[in-house]
């Protein structure tokens, strides 16, 4: 291939470098303040034992095909049944990951005559599905319930005849704040619509037995809930809880489900064990809550910033280059902190995302904030 054909990519990457938005992959090292392994299950002896036991039972590593062909395994079906009971859903579908699940549901379920109204800060995977949808779409300002209602009302006034779909995260991944779920559930009910709750960062951490922030809502036929398995559950995949008829529709119409090789049956066995751990070991959530409170106190006392109220603590920086420089310095000193830049977050809101998880302790948290306070001063604008 000629250098001319490659020049377009080189130009784009050079532009990203100038804006301090160039990305590359690197193996994590140092104390973990970056991962979503909130309950420390990714390296859990119980998950390892579950995998080992499943191998002894003859469970294969690979599925060998899509769920609709030879790839459907009894481990997938047992996981879906156990997850439906655990999360209180009529039916659960197991997807390869949260990205695939969000893309599938938003691109498949809302119909051409429908409306998708979604929080502007919702996951990129939801945006992917929304872009592929044939429905009318409307983004609204973050956590403004009145804006959701206004968007639906305006759509109706313009002749909208279908069903409104409200898309939110229960706990926002980059800000660590919560969605007003009861108000949004009532809104969906009043307008005969659906509420889609992405519980990715709440699953395992909040709600009874870690069932998520939507667990306390009345069981309603119009609520869909997504629980990812690669964060607090320590494995991979995603569990989409929905009314049976909606799940069956996805099996028949969602291309991400139909044409994807099924997740590893061994991973399904690990997720089954992770759900048992949530019920068996509530002390993990309690310990995380204590660490989160301690980190919030450190954030206030050392940086004079208010905590988010969750295990996700964003440190606003603004400038991309400054955020990257501070993160690199912290990494060099043994604290794995990452800079989050556009387009993951809005332009001008680059930040450090501090993730509190059970891979750290109070001593490490205190040491990190002590060093971070100095790094922020050393890189002052």
Primary descriptors:
single chain; 381 residues; alpha/beta; Aspartate Aminotransferase, domain 2; Aspartate Aminotransferase, domain 1; 2 domains; three-stranded antiparallel β-sheet; 13 helices; 44% helix
Tell me the count of domains.
2
Strand content: 5-15%
> How are the strands of the largest sheet arranged?
2-8-7-6-5-3-4
What share of the residues lie within helices? 40-55%
CATH topology of the largest domain: Aspartate Aminotransferase, domain 2
Radius of gyration: 22 Å
The coarse silhouette is globular
Element pattern in H and E: HEHHEHEHEHEHEEEHHHHEHEEEH
CATH class of the largest domain: Alpha Beta
Mean pLDDT: 95
Low-pLDDT stretches: none
In terms of structural class, how would the helical and strand content be classed?
Answer: alpha/beta
CATH superfamily of the largest domain, by name, is Type I PLP-dependent aspartate aminotransferase-like (Major domain)
Largest beta-sheet details: 7 strands, mixed
CATH architecture of the largest domain: 3-Layer(aba) Sandwich
Strands, count:
12
N/C terminus separation = 44 Å
Q: Report the total helices.
A: 13
Short overview:
By secondary structure, the protein is of the alpha/beta class.
Task: Describe what this molecule looks like in 3D.
The chain contains 13 helices and twelve strands. The chain is of the alpha/beta class. It has two domains: 45-279, 3-Layer(aba) Sandwich (Aspartate Aminotransferase, domain 2); 282-378, Aspartate Aminotransferase, domain 1. A seven-stranded mixed β-sheet has the order 2-8-7-6-5-3-4, with helices on both faces. A three-stranded antiparallel β-sheet has the order 9-12-11. A two-stranded parallel ribbon has the order 1-10. Strand 5, helix 7 and strand 6 form a beta-alpha-beta unit. Helix 11 (282-303) runs parallel beside helix 13. It is globular, with a radius of gyration of 22 Å. The model has no long low-confidence stretch (mean pLDDT 95).
């Amino acid at each position: 291939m000629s250098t001319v054909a490659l020049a377009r990519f080189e130009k784009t990457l050079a532009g990203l470098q100038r804006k301090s938005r160039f990305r590359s992959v690197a193996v994590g090292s140092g104390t973990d303040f970056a991962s979503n392994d909130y309950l420390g299950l990714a390296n859990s002896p119980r998950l390892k034992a579950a995998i080992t036991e499943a191998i002894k039972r003859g469970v294969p590593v690979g599925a060998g095909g899509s769920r609709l062909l030879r790839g459907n395994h009894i481990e997938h079906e047992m996981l879906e049944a156990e997850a439906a009971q655990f999360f209180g859903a009529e039916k659960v579908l197991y997807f390869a990951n949260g990205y695939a699940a969000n893309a599938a549901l938003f691109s498949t379920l809302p119909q051409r005559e429908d409306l998708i109204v979604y929080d502007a800060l919702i996951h990129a995977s939801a945006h992917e599905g929304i872009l592929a949808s044939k429905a009318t779409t409307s983004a609204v300002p973050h956590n403004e319930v009145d804006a959701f209602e206004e968007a639906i009302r305006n759509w109706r006034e313009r002749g909208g005849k279908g069903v409104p779909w409200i898309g939110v995260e229960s706990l926002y991944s980059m800000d660590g704040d919560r969605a007003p779920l009861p108000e949004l559930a009532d809104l969906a009910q009043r307008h005969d619509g659906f509420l889609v709750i992405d519980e990715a960062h709440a699953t395992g951490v909040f709600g009874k037995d870690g069932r998520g922030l939507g667990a306390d809502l009345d069981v309603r036929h119009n609520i869909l809930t997504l629980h990812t398995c690669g964060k607090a559950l320590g494995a991979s995949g995603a569990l989409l809880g929905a009314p049976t008829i909606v799940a069956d529709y996805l099996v028949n119409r969602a291309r991400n489900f139909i044409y994807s090789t099924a997740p590893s049956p061994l991973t399904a066995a690990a997720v089954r064990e992770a759900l048992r751990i949530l019920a068996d070991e509530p002390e993990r959530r309690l310990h995380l809550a204590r660490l989160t409170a301690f980190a919030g106190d450190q954030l206030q006392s050392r940086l004079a910033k208010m905590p988010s109220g969750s295990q996700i603590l964003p440190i606003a920086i603004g400038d991309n280059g400054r955020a990257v420089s501070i993160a690199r310095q912290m990494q060099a000193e043994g604290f794995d902190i990452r800079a989050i830049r556009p387009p993951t977050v809005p332009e001008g809101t680059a930040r450090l995302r501090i993730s509190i998880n059970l891979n750290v302790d109070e001593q490490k948290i205190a040491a990190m904030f002590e060093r971070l306070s100095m790094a922020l001063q050393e890189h002052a604008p």
